[in-house]
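re: that chain from earlier
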Amino acid sequence: GMADFKIPEVIENGDGWGPPLDVPPERFRDMPYAPFSKSDRLGRAADLFSSQSSRASDRYGIDGYPDDDEQSFTMVDQRPSSGPFGPGGAFSSGGNRGRGGHSGYGYRGGSGGRSAQFSSNRRLMDERGEFQGRKDQRRTGFRGGARGNSRGGFRGGYQNRGGRWEDRSGQSSRELSVQVAEDWTFVAEMSHTQLSKMKCEKLVEGADVVCAGSLHFYDRAIDRVTPRNPKVLSKFPDREFHYVTTTDDPIIRRLASQNTANIFATSSIVSLLMVAPRTANGWDVVVQRIGDKLFFDKREGSMIDFLTIGETSFDVVDDKSDANSYHSLALEATSTNQDLSQTVLKAGAKPYKFEEADPFAESGVDSAPVGYRYRKWDFGEGRSVLVRCEVDAAMEGPNGPSFVAVKALNEIYDVKSEWKSRLDSNRGAVFATEIKNNAGKLARWTAQALLSDVEQIKFGFCTRSNPKDGSSHQLLATHLYKPKDFANQIALTSNNIWGVFLYMVDLCYRYMDTTGKAIFMKDPNEPIVRMYRVPEDAFDETDESDDEENTEDQDGA
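^ sequence. v structure.
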């Protein structure tokens, strides 16, 4: 007999195409609708061999429901790769260890192989508000690094040897200059964008209040040095270079007792705050308020007096030895700058002396000849700023001696020096690269020159005598700039730098007690400067030093 044929039920839709919306087929009931974007590559309507079908099934699952989020973002690439993200590369994952990291995600640098973590939902605040975001739980080892005592010498050792020079690049998390303590109170937060837009509407001229120290004259024969005939920088191992903080300066103490001004600082500290939007590394500045007076100080163990190399560069220096580590390069740049400032001076010439003697000179100690100009700016409204500015050398002229700042630019290379071949033919390009890679350092030098009111800045291009040895350097050439002309070239305006500093002064008067202490901190991983109120005994290591001495005495007994 013939097979039975049952006519299927057909539901007619008189209002449109396809089955009615209120009567879906049983097999499609409760199935979620998977939306798609117009940018998705759908492929053919019925392509059983395309890899698109496998990707679609991975995304939405076999039953039409989306799979787990982590699985939906899993990609497996079995092709060998020699790039930086391939197996064994600088950013390799899994068992491949990155340079300086552990197993897991090995980011290049001393961050312990952990990936950088940023708070994605933290909102910027103009001034006050709760701080939303993570606290950096890692402690820094800068404490005891560069300790500026009354003689300004660099005492103590570098304790944080884990951080590498690559830490300055954006791929690696850099350490805070000081660990935020639990008893600190968050006060304000300033982004680099906010700081770069600030302006001081009323600029005033600075005036000398006290001038001290002495200056040697600049040797003009230095300007005839060429890359083909370089000059080896002299070494001055027994010469003292003073980096005395504000409250340890006897002249500032005297002027403060005479109520000469109510805001006191050094040009090193003020310039760092002024150019904060151009810096990348972490730093901190301590502020003490006594009545209506503010004293901007550097913390014991701070590294703000050390120069950096390539702070704002994105090119990673291949660190194959301790000579190219972050701390070694900072020490090398600082010592090279010191050696250059003394090498360019005329030997045996009679020095130019100011009214008062060097306030930091000690009998029997060879101190570097430096001129100190204590200059005052009165902005009105109770804001009178006194800054100790420094001058490196004097230069003879028809109208008497003029003042000069001398600064050293360092080249770090592995095999062959590029500066020796490029300075003669393309010095402008070399200098432009230095401005890009060291924006914070050069802006800070320019701000110091403007504060000191020097007529010229002498930049010296210095390179290593041996690429593997950071202790011996050669001067290849010099370049002269007037501070105001160079400031215009790098878009550094007096309105902005004074606006930034005076804004921070206003924050101190607004949120600090009449006898209190605060700290400004630059976040090394985000373009942000934060202000905290800290206990009055914060950063006071006198008790710790006494405890260490007592412990040593007991051990000796």
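The first helix runs from residue 51 to 60.
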